[in-house]
C-alpha cells in the first residue's frame, strides 16, 4: 500500500474584475447567437433560394454558416478559460485562451469561415484581457511582448491543433522557482494550489527512476500544467505529458494514448497529468508517486487512483484546500467507506463457515478466504478467483478451432445426518502447466467452485505462471517492450534509429613518435620503427602501359604487426581487366634519427597531399598519435642488408628539397586558386564554382573553365607562372634538337615522357604519354564528335587565345600528348562488370581514354614522378583494408577465441561498403542459430510456461533492441565497417581530410536519421552515422562466423562474451524427457508404429510423439498439446535448413540465400510435407471444422502432386491449415527432446521427408513480387483493387489502368496471388504478340538517330525537342515530347507530338518517328 500524504494549500484570491469581464463576454455571445438564429430562419433561406449571393454575403459576412452554429462551442471555451482563471491563475488562463485563438486561426475548413470569424472576434478580446507574464524579467528577450504586440505575435505562432498549448515564454535559467512563483502568486498569475504542486514535485528532484501521475478534474488543467512545468527551470528533471480521453475538440486518439503510456512506461516521459481516464486499468509498475491535484468525486475514484502507485514505497498525495470543510468531510467518508468495503469483502469470502477445515489443509490452502502476495499486496479472493481463472484460460495460445476455458466437475457428498456437501474438480486446457486440481468440501456448489479456483490461483502463482500482481505472466521477463507501431521517433533497434559514433582506430597503430620533437622526445634519440614492404602483382592483361609502371613503397610502423594480418592478400580492382594482389612483407626493424624522421615525414606529407588532394605543408600539418605510420619510397632491387638501405633516400631528398613546392600550382588543389569547376584529384568529393585567386594577401579574379575571366598575362604578372628568359624571337630551330621550352625551363623531350606536368592555364595535372612531333599549335583544332556546326577555333593557338587569353609564343613546338592524373579511387569495391573477352575490352578501354594535347610552354614539370603517384594512389585502399584488419584482430583478442581474422572482418563489414566482404550471409546463419539456442534455453528453463509466453520471451531475447544494447556495451560500433571507402574522406597521418563549407550548406537542416549508414558528419571526419539495426546485425553475423569456425563451442563462447546467457545446467537438461503414462489403447488408436516407420525412428518416450500430434481442441486426456514442442521444433528446423543451405550454396549471394530459406522454411511447405507423408492421419484433435479443412486441403495437394515436375514450395493456389505445418515442427521438437537435444537426429529423420529441397534452379518467385518487379522495370503503374462479397474476396489487377487479371477466393491474399499470376500470364502473352507483330512488320524503325542522319545529309540544323507533358507517380512516370526541324528551304516543319512513354528517350523516339514520316512525304529523298 502506498503512503498516504495530505498537503494543504491556501484558497486563491478572487480576480473579480477578470471574472466579471469573462461573464459579460459570455452573455454577449449568447445574445448574438440568439439574434443570428432568429434571423436565419427566413432571411438565410430566402436569400439562398432567390440566388441573391451579394445579399447573403452582406448579411452573413463570409459564408452560409451563422454565428449561432459556433456560439455553443465558444461558450464552452469561455467557461473553460474562466475555470482555469479561478483554479490555476491568470497566466494559465491566458495560455488556454491563446491556444484556443491559435487553433481557430489555423482552421482551414471553408464552410466554417463565419463560425471561425465569430469566435475569433471574442477570443481576441479575451487574449488581450488576460495577457500577462509569469514574472517581470523572467522571460527571454525574444519572448517579451508589449500589450500592443500580443495579437500580432499570435498571428505568427506555429500551427497547432485546437486544444494544444503553444510554446511561448521561457523562464531564465537563473531565476529561482520560489522567487518566480512567489511573485506570481502575489499578483494572481498563479494560484497557491499550483504553487503547492510545484513544491511537491521539487521534493522528488533526486528520486531515482521517478514516475508520477497527477490526477486532475478538467481536460483544460491536464493540457496547461505540462506547459507550465516546461517553463520552470527548476523542474527540468521532469518530462511531462497529458493523458486525456475523448472530450469534444480536446481529445486523444487511442493510438496517441497508447504511445503516451508506452513512453511513460519506458521512462521517456516521467510525469503524466491525467484525467479520470487513467484512474482504472493503467498498470505501470514503475509509478511511485500519485498526486490528486483535484480531489476525487467518488470513493471508487479515490481508491482506483491510489492503486496506480504500484512501486513499493510509493506515495499517494492528496491536495486539500485549507479550511475547506467539504474536502475534509469527503476524505473522512472515503476512508470510512473503504474500511467498510474491505470488511464486507472479507466477510463475503470468509471460509470459516466451511466444514471440516482439516480438508482445507490437505488441499494445501492458506487459512482464510484470501490469497495475498506480501511483496506487492496483491490479493485474490473467493469472488475474484473464478474470473481470474477464466481470464488465464482466455489468454492461453489458441486458434479458431479450439475454445479454451476451464471445466468444473461437481461431486455431491451425502453425509450422515442428512447434510450435503460439494467438491469441485477443476480441469484446465491441455496447454496449461497442470490440468486437474481437486477442491475442498464446501457447503454449496458456488463455494466449491470458488474454493478450487482460489487454490488454482495460488498454485499458478507458486509455479510462476501468475506474476506477483496475481496477473497472468505475459512472458516478457518483467520488461515491457513496445511492440506497437511507432509513427513518431524511431526506436532503438530499428533501421531508422541512427546515431553518431567515432570511427575506431586500432591500438597497435598508436605512436607518440610521430608527434613533433618538442612533444615526445629529445633531438639525440633514435626511434625503432618496423618496415613492411608493399608488394603488388597485377593479374590480367591490359593495353594500358601505365598500369605496370607503378613504384613500390614501404610502410613504417611504430609496432610490429600480427603475422596473420600481414599475410593477408588484398585484392584491388584497378581496371576492368586487371586486378592487383597486394600484400605486406616484413623487412625488419630499423633505427631512425631525428633528421631522417623529418625527411620521411616531409616526403609522406608531400606525396599524400597530392594523392588525396589536401593542401597541407609538412611544417604546419597536425599529427595524430592515434594513427602513426609513414609511406616511404624504396629502391627497385631487393637488398638483404639493413632495411634503412632499402629506402630510396635520393628520390626522397630530391622531392622534399624541390623548389617547385613554393608555387601554389604545384601543390594540392590548384583548382581552388584558379576557380575551375572540375577537380584534378579527389574529384568525387565536391565541385567548385568560380573562385578567387589569393596571392600575397591580395584577392585577384582568375579564369574559369567555361571561359577567360581575366587575361592570362595578368595571372602571370602576379607570379603564379614563373618567369623564364626566352624571348619571343627565339625560334624552335634555334634550340638544341630534342629540347622543349616549358613555362619555366627548357628540357629534353625524352626526359619529359612519363613525368607529370601541371598546366598553368588550368591548374590540372597530366601524365605525359608522348611528344607529338607531327603536331604543333598551328594545327587545326579538332571538332567534337558529331558536331556539324561552324568551326569555333581555327587552331590550337586560336583555342588557347580565345578560351584562356593565352598568347602562345612557341607555336612551332611539338605538342605533348597527355592523360589526366585521375583522382584517388576506391579500389576495394568491384567497379567493373565481368568480361568474357579481356583483351578486346582492354583495347576498347584504352581507346576511350581521355587524351589532351598541350603546348609545352604552358606546362610545369611536377616534382613527383608519375610512377610514384600511380603507386601511391593504391596506398589509401591498401591501408584502409589493413586498418580494418587490425581492428578485427583487436576485437578477436578481446573475445579471446581462435577465429580467422578475415572471417571476423567479414562479420564487421556491411553491404553498404560494396566490397567483396559482407556480413549478410553470416548474419542469416547467426540469426537462425541464435533463435535455436534461445528457444532451447527457454523451453528447458521454463517448463511451466506455455507457447505464447515462450514466444514473447524469445522475441525479447533475440530482438534487435537487445542485440543493439549488447553491441553498445561491448563497443562494437567502433569496429564496424559500414561506409563505402572514399579516399577523399580518409585520414592519412599528417593529411587530414578537408570538408568544404559548401558541403555543410548542403547538409544544413537535414535530419540525422536521414543519413545512410557510414555517412560522415560535416567536418568531423572521425565520426559516422550508424543505424542501430546495423549493430544488431553485426552481433548476429559474429554469432554466425563463430559457429562456422568454432562450432557450438565457439558460438557459445561469443554469446557469453556478448552477455547473452543461454547456458543450461545439467539438471535442467535431464528433467525434460520425463516419460508419459500412455495407455495401450491410445497407442493403438494413433497407430504410433506406422508413424515411427514413416519417420524411420523409434521413440524412447512415446509420450512426446503423442504430445506432438495432439491439438489444443482435443479434450484433455493427461497429454498436453503440441504447442511447446512446436515452439522448439520451429527453431530447430529453421537452424538445420539454414545451415544446410549455407554450406551447400557457398557462392550464393545473401539475397538469393534468404529467398531459398524463405521457400524452404514456411508453414505452407511444411503442410504439404505432412500431407505427402500422411502425417495428418495421426493428428489428434476435436474440431469438425478443422477436419473439413484438412480434407479439402489434402484433395488440393493431391491435385498439385499429380502434375509432373511441379513443386510450389508453398506457393500453390490452396491455403494450408496452419495445424498441418505445426505438426511437422512439433515432430521435430519431439525428436529433438527425445534424443537429448541433438539436432543431428532431427535432420537425419526429417531430411528424407523434406526432399526435394528447394534449389536456386527450382526456387519459385511469388507472383505478386514478380509482377511488382516487372512493372518497376518497365515503369508501368500497378494497382490492386479488392472487394469482398460475403465470404468471397475479389481482387483485380490493373497495369497502366488496364485490367490484366482477376481472381476470387475466400482469402484476400490468396486471391491477390492468383490474380497476379493471371496478370503475368496476360502480360507475357501480350509481349509475345507484339514480338510477332514486329517480325511481320518489316518497315523501317524510325528513331532519333535516323532523324539526325537525315538532317546531316540535308545540312539542316539538329532537331529541336520540347517536353509537352510529364506526369504520373514516381514509379510510373509518363513523358510526352514534341519535335520540329528548321529546314533550309521551307523554314520550320510542323511540330509532331509523340505518344506517352515511360522514359525521355522513348518519348523522343516516338516524336521523331512521326516527324520522319512527315519529312519523307514532303521532302522525298534525292536520287543520286
Summarize the topology.
Layout: E1 3-9, H1 16-50, H2 53-60, H3 68-87, H4 90-105, H5 113-130, H6 150-154, H7 177-187, H8 192-202, E2 212-215, H9 219-230, E3 240-243, H10 254-266, E4 271-274, E5 289-292, H11 299-306, E6 315-321, H12 325-348, H13 357-362, E7 370-372, E8 379-381, H14 382-394, E9 407-414, E10 420-427, E11 436-438, H15 445-462, E12 498-502, H16 517-520, E13 527-539, E14 553-557, H17 563-566, E15 570-573, E16 579-592, H18 594-612, E17 629-633, H19 643-646, H20 649-656, H21 670-674, E18 692-695, E19 698-701, H22 712-717, E20 739-741, E21 746-748, H23 749-752, E22 756-759, E23 765-776, H24 796-804, E24 814-820, H25 838-847, E25 851-854, E26 859-861, H26 866-872, H27 875-895, H28 901-908, H29 920-941, H30 947-957, H31 960-969, H32 997-1003, E27 1016-1017, E28 1020-1027, H33 1028-1058, H34 1066-1070, H35 1080-1086, H36 1088-1095, H37 1102-1108, H38 1123-1144, H39 1150-1160, H40 1163-1172, H41 1184-1202, H42 1218-1234, H43 1239-1250, H44 1263-1273, E29 1278-1285, E30 1288-1295, E31 1298-1305, H45 1308-1336, H46 1344-1353, E32 1360-1367, E33 1374-1380, E34 1382-1383, ...
Parallel strand pairs: 1-6, 2-4, 2-5, 3-4, 5-6
Antiparallel strand pairs: 7-8, 9-10, 10-11, 12-28, 13-14, 13-16, 14-17, 15-16, 18-19, 20-21, 22-23, 22-26, 23-24, 24-25, 27-28, 29-30, 30-31, 32-33, 33-36, 34-35
Helix pairs in contact: 1-2, 1-3, 1-5, 3-4, 3-5, 4-5, 14-15, 18-20, 27-28, 28-33, 29-30, 29-33, 29-38, 31-33, 37-42, 38-39, 38-42, 40-42, 42-43, 44-45
Amino acid at each position: 500500500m502506498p503512503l498516504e500524504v495530505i498537503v494543504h494549500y491556501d484558497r486563491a484570491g478572487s480576480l473579480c474584475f477578470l471574472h466579471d469581464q469573462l461573464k459579460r463576454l459570455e452573455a454577449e455571445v449568447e445574445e448574438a447567437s440568439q439574434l443570428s438564429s432568429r434571423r436565419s430562419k427566413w432571411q438565410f433561406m430566402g436569400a439562398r433560394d432567390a440566388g441573391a449571393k451579394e445579399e447573403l454575403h452582406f448579411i452573413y459576412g463570409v459564408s452560409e454558416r451563422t454565428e449561432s452554429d459556433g456560439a455553443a462551442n465558444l461558450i464552452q471555451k469561455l467557461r473553460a478559460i474562466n475555470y482555469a482563471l479561478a483554479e490555476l491563475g491568470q497566466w494559465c488562463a491566458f495560455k488556454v485562451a491563446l491556444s484556443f485563438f491559435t487553433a481557430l486561426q489555423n482552421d482551414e475548413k471553408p464552410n466554417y469561415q463565419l463560425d471561425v470569424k465569430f469566435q475569433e472576434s471574442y477570443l481576441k478580446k479575451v487574449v488581450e484581457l488576460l495577457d500577462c507574464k509569469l514574472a517581470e524579467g523572467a522571460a527571454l528577450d525574444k519572448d517579451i511582448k508589449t500589450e500592443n504586440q500580443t495579437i500580432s505575435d499570435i498571428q505568427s505562432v506555429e500551427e497547432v491543433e485546437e486544444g494544444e498549448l503553444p510554446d511561448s515564454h521561457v523562464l531564465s535559467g537563473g531565476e529561482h522557482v520560489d522567487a518566480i512563483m512567489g511573485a506570481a502568486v502575489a499578483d494572481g498569475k498563479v494560484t497557491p494550489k499550483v504553487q503547492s504542486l510545484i513544491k511537491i514535485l521539487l521534493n522528488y528532484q533526486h528520486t531515482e527512476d521517478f514516475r508520477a501521475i497527477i490526477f486532475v478534474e478538467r481536460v483544460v488543467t491536464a493540457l496547461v500544467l505540462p506547459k507550465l512545468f516546461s517553463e520552470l527551470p527548476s523542474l527540468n528533471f521532469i518530462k511531462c505529458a497529458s493523458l486525456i480521453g475523448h472530450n469534444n475538440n480536446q481529445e486523444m486518439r487511442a493510438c496517441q494514448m497508447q504511445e503516451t503510456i508506452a513512453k511513460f512506461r519506458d521512462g521517456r516521459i516521467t510525469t503524466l497529468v491525467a484525467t479520470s481516464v487513467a484512474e482504472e486499468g493503467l498498470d505501470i509498475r514503475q509509478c511511485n508517486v500519485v498526486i490528486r491535484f483535484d480531489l476525487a468525486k467518488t470513493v471508487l475514484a479515490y481508491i482506483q487512483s491510489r492503486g496506480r502507485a504500484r512501486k513499493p514505497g510509493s506515495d499517494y498525495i492528496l491536495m486539500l484546500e485549507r479550511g475547506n470543510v467539504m474536502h475534509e468531510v469527503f476524505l473522512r467518508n472515503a476512508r470510512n467507506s473503504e474500511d467498510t468495503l474491505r470488511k464486507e469483502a472479507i466477510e463475503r469470502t470468509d471460509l470459516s463457515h466451511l466444514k471440516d477445515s482439516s480438508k482445507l489443509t490437505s488441499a494445501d490452502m492458506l487459512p482464510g478466504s484470501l490469497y495475498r502476495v506480501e511483496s506487492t499486496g496483491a490479493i485474490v479472493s473467493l469472488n475474484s478467483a473464478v474470473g481470474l481463472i477464466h481470464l488465464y484460460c482466455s489468454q492461453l495460445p489458441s486458434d479458431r478451432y479450439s475454445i479454451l476455458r476451464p471445466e468444473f466437475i461437481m461431486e455431491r457428498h451425502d453425509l450422515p445426518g442428512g447434510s450435503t456437501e460439494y467438491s469441485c474438480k477443476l480441469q484446465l486446457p491441455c496447454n496449461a502447466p497442470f490440468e486437474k486440481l481437486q477442491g475442498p468440501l464446501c457447503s454449496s456448489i458456488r463455494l466449491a467452485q470458488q474454493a478450487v479456483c482460489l487454490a488454482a490461483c495460488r498454485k499458478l502463482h507458486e509455479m510462476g505462471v501468475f506474476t506477483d500482481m496475481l496477473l497472468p505472466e505475459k512472458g516478457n521477463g518483467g520488461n515491457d517492450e513496445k511492440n506497437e507501431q511507432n509513427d513518431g521517433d524511431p526506436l532503438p533497434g530499428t533501421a531508422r534509429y541512427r546515431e553518431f559514433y567515432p570511427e575506431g582506430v586500432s591500438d597497435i597503430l598508436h605512436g607518440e613518435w610521430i608527434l613533433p620533437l618538442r612533444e615526445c622526445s629529445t633531438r639525440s634519440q633514435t626511434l625503432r620503427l618496423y618496415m613492411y614492404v608493399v608488394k603488388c602483382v597485377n593479374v590480367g592483361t591490359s593495353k594500358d602501359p601505365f598500369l605496370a609502371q607503378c613504384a613500390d613503397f614501404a610502410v613504417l610502423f611504430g609496432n610490429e604487426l600480427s603475422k596473420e594480418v600481414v599475410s593477408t592478400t588484398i585484392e584491388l580492382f584497378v581496371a576492368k581487366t586487371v586486378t592487383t594482389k597486394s600484400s605486406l612483407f616484413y623487412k625488419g626493424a630499423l633505427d631512425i634519427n631525428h633528421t631522417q624522421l623529418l625527411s620521411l615525414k616531409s616526403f609522406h606529407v608531400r606525396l599524400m597531399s597530392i594523392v588525396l588532394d589536401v593542401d597541407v605543408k609538412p611544417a604546419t600539418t597536425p599529427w595524430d598519435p592515434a594513427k602513426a605510420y609513414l609511406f616511404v619510397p624504396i629502391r627497385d632491387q631487393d637488398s638483404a642488408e639493413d632495411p634503412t638501405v632499402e629506402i630510396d633516400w635520393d628520390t626522397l631528398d630530391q622531392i622534399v628539397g624541390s623548389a617547385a613546392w613554393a608555387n601554389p600550382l604545384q601543390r594540392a588543389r590548384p583548382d581552388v586558386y584558379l576557380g575551375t569547376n572540375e577537380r584534378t584529384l579527389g574529384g568525387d568529393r565536391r565541385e567548385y564554382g568560380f573562385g578567387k585567386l589569393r596571392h600575397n594577401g591580395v584577392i585577384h579574379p582568375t579564369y574559369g573553365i567555361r571561359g577567360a575571366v581575366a587575361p592570362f598575362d595578368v595571372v602571370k604578372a602576379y607570379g603564379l607562372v614563373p618567369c623564364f628568359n626566352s624571348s619571343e624571337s627565339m625560334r624552335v630551330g634555334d634550340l638544341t634538337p630534342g629540347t622543349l621550352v616549358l613555362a619555366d625551363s627548357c628540357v629534353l623531350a625524352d626526359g619529359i615522357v612519363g613525368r607529370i606536368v601541371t598546366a598553368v592555364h588550368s591548374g590540372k595535372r597530366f601524365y605525359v604519354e608522348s611528344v607529338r612531333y607531327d603536331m604543333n599549335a598551328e594545327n587545326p583544332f579538332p571538332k567534337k564528335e558529331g558536331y556539324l556546326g561552324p568551326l569555333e577555333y581555327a587552331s590550337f593557338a586560336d583555342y588557347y587565345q580565345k578560351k584562356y587569353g593565352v598568347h602562345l609564343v612557341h607555336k612551332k613546338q611539338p605538342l605533348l600528348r597527355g592523360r589526366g592524373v585521375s583522382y584517388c579511387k576506391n579500389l576495394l569495391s568491384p567497379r567493373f562488370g565481368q568480361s568474357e573477352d579481356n583483351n578486346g575490352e582492354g583495347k576498347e578501354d584504352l581507346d576511350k581514354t581521355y587524351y589532351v594535347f598541350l603546348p609545352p610552354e604552358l606546362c610545369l614539370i611536377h616534382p613527383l614522378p608519375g610512377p610514384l603517384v600511380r603507386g601511391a594512389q593504391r596506398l589509401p585502399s591498401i591501408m584502409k583494408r589493413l586498418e580494418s584488419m587490425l581492428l578485427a584482430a583487436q576485437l578477436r583478442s578481446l573475445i579471446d577465441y581462435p577465429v580467422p581474422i578475415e572471417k571476423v572482418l567479414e562479420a564487421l563489414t556491411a553491404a553498404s561498403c560494396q566490397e567483396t566482404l559482407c556480413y549478410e550471409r553470416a548474419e542469416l546463419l547467426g540469426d537462425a542459430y541464435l533463435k535455436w539456442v534461445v528457444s532451447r534455453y527457454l523451453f528447458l528453463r521454463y517448463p511451466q510456461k506455455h507457447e505464447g509466453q515462450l514466444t514473447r520471451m524469445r522475441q525479447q531475447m533475440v530482438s534487435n533492441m537487445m542485440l543493439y544494447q549488447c553491441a553498445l556495451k561491448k563497443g562494437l560500433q567502433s569496429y564496424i565497417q559500414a561506409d563505402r571507402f572514399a579516399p577523399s574522406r580518409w585520414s592519412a597521418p599528417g593529411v587530414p581530410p578537408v570538408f568544404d563549407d559548401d558541403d555543410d550548406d548542403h547538409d544544413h537542416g537535414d535530419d540525422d536519421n536521414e543519413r545512410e549508414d557510414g555517412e560522415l558528419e560535416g567536418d568531423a571526419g572521425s565520426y559516422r552515422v550508424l543505424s542501430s539495426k546495423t549493430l544488431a546485425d553485426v552481433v548476429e553475423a559474429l554469432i554466425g562466423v563463430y559457429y562456422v569456425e568454432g562450432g557450438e563451442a565457439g558460438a557459445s563462447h561469443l554469446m557469453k562474451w556478448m552477455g547473452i546467457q543461454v547456458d543450461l545446467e545439467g539438471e535442467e537438461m535431464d528433467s525434460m524427457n520425463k516419460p508419459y503414462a500412455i495407455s495401450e489403447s491410445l497407442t493403438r488408436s494413433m497407430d504410433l508404429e506406422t508413424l515411427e516407420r514413416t519417420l524411420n525412428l523409434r521413440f524412447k518416450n512415446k509420450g512426446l510423439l503423442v504430445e506432438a500430434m495432439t491439438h489444443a481442441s482435443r479434450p484433455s486426456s493427461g497429454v498436453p498439446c503440441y504447442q511447446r514442442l512446436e515452439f522448439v521444433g520451429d527453431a530447430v528446423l529453421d537452424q538445420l535448413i539454414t545451415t544446410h543451405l549455407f554450406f551447400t550454396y557457398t557462392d550464393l549471394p545473401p539475397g538469393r540465400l534468404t529467398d531459398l530459406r524463405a521457400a524452404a522454411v514456411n508453414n505452407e511447405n511444411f503442410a504439404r510435407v505432412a500431407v505427402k507423408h500422411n502425417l495428418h492421419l495421426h493428428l489428434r484433435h476435436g474440431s469438425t471444422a478443422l477436419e473439413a479443412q484438412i480434407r479439402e486441403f489434402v484433395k488440393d495437394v493431391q491435385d498439385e502432386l499429380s502434375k509432373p515436375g511441379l513443386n510450389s514450395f508453398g506457393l500453390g493456389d490452396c491455403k494450408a491449415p496452419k495445424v498441418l505445418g505445426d505438426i511437422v515442427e512439433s515432430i521435430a521438437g519431439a525428436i529433438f527432446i527425445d534424443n537429448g537435444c541433438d539436432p543431428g537426429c532431427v535432420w537425419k529423420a526429417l531430411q528424407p521427408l523434406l526432399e526435394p529441397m528447394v534449389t536456386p534452379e527450382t526456387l519459385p518467385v511469388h507472383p505478386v513480387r514478380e509482377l511488382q518487379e516487372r512493372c518497376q522495370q518497365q515503369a508501368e503503374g500497378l494497382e490492386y483493387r479488392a472487394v469482398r462479397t460475403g465470404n468471397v474476396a475479389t481482387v483485380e489487377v490493373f497495369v497502366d489502368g488496364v485490367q490484366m487479371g482477376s481472381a476470387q477466393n475466400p482469402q484476400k491474399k490468396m486471391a491477390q496471388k492468383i490474380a497476379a499470376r493471371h496478370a503475368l500470364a496476360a502480360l507475357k502473352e501480350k509481349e509475345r504478340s507484339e514480338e510477332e507483330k514486329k517480325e511481320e512488320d518489316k518497315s523501317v524503325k524510325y528513331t532519333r538517330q535516323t532523324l539526325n542522319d537525315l538532317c546531316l545529309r540535308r545540312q539542316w540544323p539538329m532537331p529541336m525537342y520540347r517536353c509537352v507533358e510529364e506526369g504520373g507517380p514516381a514509379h510510373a512516370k509518363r513523358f510526352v515530347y514534341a519535335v520540329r526541324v528548321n529546314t533550309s528551304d521551307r523554314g520550320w516543319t510542323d511540330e509532331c507530338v509523340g505518344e506517352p512513354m515511360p522514359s525521355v528517350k522513348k518519348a523522343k523516339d516516338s516524336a521523331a518517328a512521326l516527324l520522319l514520316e512527315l519529312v519523307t512525304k514532303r521532302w522525298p529523298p534525292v536520287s543520286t
